[in-house]
Amino acid sequence: MAKGFVLNDESRLNSYGFLVLNAGGSFDRFRENPVMLYLHEQEQLIGRWENLRTDGSKLIADEVFDTEDPEAMKLSGKVDRGFLKGSSMGLHILDAELKNIPGLGLVPAVTKWELMEASLAPVPSGQTCLRLYNEKGELITSKEAIKLSIDSIILKNNNTSMDKIMLTAEAATCLKVSKEIDPTALNSAIMALAASRDEAVTELKKFNETRAKELVDGAIKEGRLSADKKESFEKIAVSDFKQAKDLIDSLPVKQTLSDKIIAGSKDATKGRDDWNYLQWAKQDPKGLAKMQAEDPAGFEQLKANYKSA
Fold first, then answer.
1. Range(s) of the domain holding residue 267
2. Whole-number pLDDT of residue 271
3. DSSP code for 42
4. Strands (E), the chain
5. Can you give the pTM of this predicted structure?
6. Taking a C-beta distance cutoff of 8 angstroms, is the pair 263, 249 a contact?
7. Is 159 within a domain?
8. Structural domain includes residue 32
9. Count of domains forming the chain
10. Residue finishing a domain among 107, 123, 140
């Protein structure tokens, strides 16, 4: 039986500091394809939403899990057992303004918006309680970019004759805009820069995690580390790759049984490089037998040299 999730509560500021008014929501496209995601990941389609409705200040929907998806059923179990209680809207903001809300004062409020999707989220009061999409349907992940998006809309509504802003040459070059720019265009440029930064941070994180894994996997293969140390050393390598590499390089490579046998064989023949086959046979027949077993090519060469002498 569905528990029902609160997708939005218009009486409370979200983690970005603004309200989303239920009356301004457009739900037609959402009702045609009411996808339920996990943490707004398109790859984690875990079910659908039904019975979308308002109850006082709350926008509520009932969850329906995909019973053929093992991951969806795991999350369903967490919901049933009371471990997963949060939800999060993904929406496209169309209009916003400053509103005087009883108990809250003058606050930014989204007055017109479209619901794109809704997700389950483990922390309903955290930043995952809301995700914004731009006009192209692309997810805006930066908290700063989300705030700028709201500010830009409100500023445009409150000041239709916006003055131009003069930027320094360095700032204009950094943002890839002209030196003379209006506030809306400036906000858009900053949002694009923030999105680019977020993408770079994500790629750097992936790179650090990949090379940390390769470093630790190599150390385990060489016998420098045991498998139970894998997770802890990967964390060190992600945080400080040089420190982890220096530490791993200082650890000895584990000798295999064959390594020890070969080393023992070399020690046994030390100082006997000029011995011929007859000397080996008379003075160390056991060593000669060991050579035959462990170094057959060298043994045959020793015999051949003796015969040709």
1. 257-308
2. 64
3. E
4. 5-9, 19-20, 25-26, 35-38, 41-55, 58-65, 86-101, 105-121, 130-133, 139-140, 165-166, 180-181
5. 0.50
6. no
7. no
8. yes
9. 2
10. 140
